[in-house]
Fold:
Amino acid sequence: MRHTATPPCEFLLEQLSAFIDADLSPAECRRIERHSRTCGRCAAMIEDLRAAMGVCRQAADEPLPAPVRRRAEARVRELMGRRRRPVQPGAKPRRPPR
Ligand SMILES: [Zn+2]
Structure:
């Protein structure tokens, strides 16, 4: 089942970088778990990420195998990309002042 018209949940997007780093504290894990119970969009994705990355696993000491990490990062980037605003045609890239 795909939800192409549904934007990803803001709550989860905020947690995504932590997901990638598998850097969630037990408190954050519980918050996410609780949220996933009330948010169908997140529930599926959290399950997915957890299966792929071992997010919120008990022993978080081991580094993720590179292929697993790459897959999870790609998935996260895909979700983040959907949130990006479309680029205006002809818009010039802004340069930071020196
Ligand atoms: Zn959500």
